[in-house]
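Hi team,

As requested, here is the filled-out complex form for the norvaline run. I kept the field names the same as last time so the parser does not choke. Let me know if anything looks off before we queue the next batch.

— J.
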Amino acid sequence: MKTKELTKGTTCACGGHHHLKRKDLCSLSDVSTQELKGWIDLAIKLKKERKAGKVHNQLAGKNLAMIFQKSSTRTRVSFEIAMRQLGGSGLYLSGNELQLGRGETIADTAQVLSRYVDGIMARVYAHSDILGLAKYATVPVINGLSDFSHPCQAVADYQTLFEHKGKLEGLTLAYVGDGNNVAHSLMFGGAKLGVNVVIVCPKGYEPKQEVTDLSSEQAKETGAKITVSNGIEAVKGADCIYTDVWASMGQEKEHDERVKIFQDYQINSKLMGMTGKKDTLFMHCLPAHRGEEVTNEVADSANSVIFDEAENRLHAQKAILVSLMA
Ligand code: CP
Ligand code: NVA
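And here is what came back:
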């Protein structure tokens, strides 16, 4: 693993992490380049220390409420284990079982939970629920996926890319598939980290125009290029090919129609070859629908880093939790 620090030379007397102080993580568009790089550096440090047997206690006695309106394997387990490994604990709350599912408002839920816990992580349908929690909670709120974005995923993904390539600035990530929540967070993250992001998708499935506009604007600071294309030849030169399911949670009814529309965007060996580079990484946030957006051959290839991404959810979220809640 590379030990280089993204924030090297820019750290301060506190050890480099006081500039990470912020209340909530709703979207990476709100996070500065410095904060984002700091999270990745801290994630790598915590990962290394943990593997060396160091016991962490930065969140001793702290509790995180974890609201889930949707299914989850990685987010649920990695947040719960992250809290435990930091000396605190995570409390799983199913959206249906909470009074929220029976009409209690987001505002009241946020204020009540703030009286019990030290932080709230939520996976929701409407992004406005994340913003509502952040507005009314007096404790930090972390977006664990909304229909709009999935910031924790992108932090873990850029950590993974950095670990494998030894740098981020100037790399090109081609996201092939649906211009969805994961694509949005990768666009904002790339803009802040100097990674060019090319979204390659069928017509009508582009990322939200506001995300393309805002991430392109924010990318001016790092010089990254954020582009959207309908042609798969746009993957040429990519250092990484990223994909996600064609039908996200909540879009199950559109699945069959989408499978037809997205056929030409499947990541298979032929498409991987189109980058013209032998060391192009394959990335996927998981869960994968093998045989749809990616073939087994690519998902299980030597260039695939999908399980490193899954592992890094744990480390990246620990960094986020420490900087928001410690
Ligand atoms: N990538 C991700 O968020 O996975 P889960 O849906 O399993 O949490
Ligand atoms: N875009 C997918 C990501 C799952 C982690 C979804 O929202 O279902």
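Two things worth flagging: Strands lie at 63-68, 89-94, 119-123, 141-143, 172-176, 196-200, 226-229, 240-243, 281-284. Residues 11-21 have pLDDT under 50 and may be disordered.

Thanks,
J.
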